[in-house]
Prior knowledge:
alpha/beta, Rossmann fold, eight-stranded mixed beta sheet
Amino acid sequence: MANESRPCPCDIGDRFDYGGxxxxxxxxxIKAYVCKPPASADKAxxxxxxxxxxxxxxxxxxxxxxxxxxxxxxCPDFFVGQEAWKPSNDWASxxxxxxxxxxxxxxxxxxxxxxYLREQCGAKKIGVIGFCWGGAAVQHLMLKNPHLKTGVxxxxxxxxxxDRSNLLHPTFFIFAEKDDHIPLEQVxxxxxxxxxxxxxxxxxxxxxxxxxxxVHRKRDDINPQDKPYIEEGRRDMINWLNKYL
Length: 245
């Protein structure tokens, strides 16, 4: 998932002390966190978590932010009951752990969630965002799933799907300039391939001075120098969703 010398990118960063405004629900075989906007909405966003799983407060904070902006937001457990990665785990075991959690094998779960959003939440237009592992999952879905309208991939690990670039839907890619795990050469290559093969709108944006996970894993109150970029990344994500949903 990262450079081979360090098998995984993910330092958990600043863990938010955040309880969440939504609720946990059971959708068929999947547990999920759902947050709804104050007024009824026919737009929804599926939030795909990183390796730290669906219960990470930071990811729920992002789901709640989407709800504040008028979207039904749902963050399902895409590990389907398997344990999320813990910062205390031995990194040497990461690649084995990852083998049973493939970002390209979530289609069955996504179909279940789409059905739930349509039938139980009245959603007519549905997009997806994802962080790190979830960012790679967004790339997969934008290449494959006809039922989603748009996606935002935040520091999604490119090498999972680097040989494919014929996106079906408008996709926004957020990358960090100083990401130890997604070298800028990979981003340049992705951009070249999209230019050659992509027929839909896309944008790749690199945020200066930022590191992996900055949009959802950095607290802006204790990282004042990063605050403008954290806020910009979040704003750009919302603006992209607003444009295509």
